[in-house]
């Protein structure tokens, strides 16, 4: 598969850092999360390139929350020179938790950790991504699945992200 296939979401598995044993980090559930943003070497096309990963994964791990819970996300910036951020796209939350540098906070300096903490007010499927430089395009993005507090009025066999 070439670069076009990757853009269409046809990869069979997540990108992992080169030389690192494959481990299943695809889904993180609960109310407490530790996320590390770091540069990692990936190879999608036969030419190694640096990308920005979360917990050594591109896309970043799927985060599963439950409506009504208070979530705490400790986001550590392990990038050498760049400020980082995570924006919780479409999530209803206080402005200082929105993750937009220069608007809702200053960004996360290299070597620093920012603690996002807020009440999850809705259910649904959303995504999270960086609002710093071109980090989103370099791999810093992931899915959010928020379970509703009350059971859905319908049944399904499987979710797909």
In short:
By secondary structure, the protein is mainly β. The chain is 3% helix and 37% strand.
Please provide a written account of the structure:
The protein has 161 residues and is mainly beta. The protein contains 1 helix and 11 strands. The protein has a 5-stranded mixed sheet, with no helix packed on it. A 4-stranded mixed sheet has the order 4-3-7-9, with no helix packed on it. It has a two-stranded antiparallel sheet with strand order 1-5. The radius of gyration is 16 Å and the shape is globular.
What key attributes describe this structure?
161 residues; mainly beta; four-stranded mixed β-sheet; 1 helix; 11 strands; 3% helix
Shape, per Cα inertia axes: globular
Unreliable spans are 1-24
Give the terminus-to-terminus CA distance. Answer: 21 Å
Main sheet record: 5 strands, mixed
Quaternary assembly: single chain
Strand segment tally: 11
Query: How many helix segments?
Result: 1
Average residue-wise pLDDT: 87
* Side-by-side strand order of the widest sheet: 2-6-11-10-8
The share of residues in extended strands comes to 35-45%
Measured as a percent range, the helix fraction is under 10%
Give the topology.
Elements: H1 3-7, E1 15-16, E2 27-29, E3 32-42, E4 49-54, E5 57-58, E6 62-66, E7 70-77, E8 87-89, E9 113-119, E10 124-129, E11 141-147
Parallel strand pairs: 2-6, 3-7, 6-11
Antiparallel strand pairs: 1-5, 3-4, 7-9, 8-10, 10-11
């Amino acid at each position: 598969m070439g670069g076009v296939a990757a853009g269409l979401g046809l990869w069979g598995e997540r990108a992992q850092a080169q030389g690192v044993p494959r481990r299943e980090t695809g889904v993180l559930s609960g109310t407490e999360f530790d996320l590390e943003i770091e540069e990692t070497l990936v190879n999608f096309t036969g030419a190694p390139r640096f990308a920005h990963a979360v917990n050594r994964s591109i896309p970043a791990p799927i985060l599963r929350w439950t409506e009504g819970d208070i979530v705490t996300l400790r986001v550590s910036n392990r990038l050498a020179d760049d400020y980082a951020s995570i924006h919780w796209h479409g999530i209803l939350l206080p402005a200082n938790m929105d993750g937009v540098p220069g608007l809702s906070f200053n960004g996360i300096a290299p070597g620093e950790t920012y603690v996002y903490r807020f009440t999850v007010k809705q259910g649904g499927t959303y995504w999270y991504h960086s609002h710093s430089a071109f980090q989103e395009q370099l791999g810093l993005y992931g899915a959010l699945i928020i379970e509703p507090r009350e059971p859905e009025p319908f049944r399904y066999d499987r979710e797909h992200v």
